[in-house]
Amino acid sequence: MELGLHIADFTWAGGPPALGRTLAETARHAEAAGIARITVMDHLWQMGDATGPRENDMLEAYTTLGFLAANTERVLLHTLVTAAVYRHPGVLAKQVSTLDVLSGGRAGLGIGAAWYEDEARGLGIPFPPTAERFTRLEETLQICLQMWGDGDGAYQSEHYQLARTLNSPQNLSVPHPYLMVGGTGERKTLRLVARYADACNLFGGPGARHKLDVLRGHCDAVGRDYDTVEKTVTFPFTPNTTRGDLVGQLLDLREAGFTVAYAFGQGFPDPRRAIDLLTSALPEVAEA
């Protein structure tokens, strides 16, 4: 199993004046310790749940990924996950391509239909009803794949009209940047995974195996080999999590069919301590 570090909390010791330095040190520490991927949320406010109140520190995702690219050498970098309605698809495809070129081919796109209505409304971002958000998500996936492919023809759909899908420089990643569709929706999200994505992202728990079975059914329906979809999972841990508990949780997820785990530490004033705990599980997990 491959381990990713998901950074979902920027309220660290030293506050905003130290945030850049701490983030750079954290990324370098993670890479040196064997972490294969680093992801950030696509939020503009904190979520107001276990990760902290809305007023806590939150960095804009694509600026942060560019900063992380400059401070790392090997890790895959992407959002977990981009809110499809927050950016025009043509701009989003270009942002990911720019990150891919400047990072030496280490960029990905994790994307979903968006859910945080309070955040969007608070900052004046249009937030259409659920059905429209999923239509826009599928159109965004089509636009990104078209811009990352050969040619530069037009794209016309219900919500987006692009006269020329020119993308220069083109990505270094072949055939295109890593593409993940995140979310657990059985009827729409997992169907989009089967049709367009390199990977899914789910939450661990009793229902995870069922979600993978649903994904298998969608793959069968579109004639896709289920084994070509990377199965990734996101899970939290805290300073009270023991190494044994962490190893056990990761091995359970591996046995369920997941090959990548994105872990996010909650309640660590120094994020490097979260990395140390997480990577202490690597020997057992890597051998599984």
TrEMBL record:
Annotated GO molecular function terms are: oxidoreductase activity
**Pfam families with a match to the protein in the record:** Bac_luciferase
Q: Which InterPro entries match?
A: F420_OxRdatse_Rv1855c_pred (IPR019952), Luciferase-like_dom (IPR011251), Luciferase-like_sf (IPR036661), SsuD_RutA_monooxygenase (IPR050172)
* Keyword annotations of the record: Flavoprotein, FMN, Monooxygenase, Oxidoreductase
Q: Report the domain of life of the source organism.
A: Bacteria
The chain positions of domain Luciferase-like read 20-250
Q: What is its EC number?
A: 1.-.-.-
Which NCBIfam families does the entry mention? F420_Rv1855c (TIGR03560)
- Name by which UniProt lists this protein: LLM class F420-dependent oxidoreductase
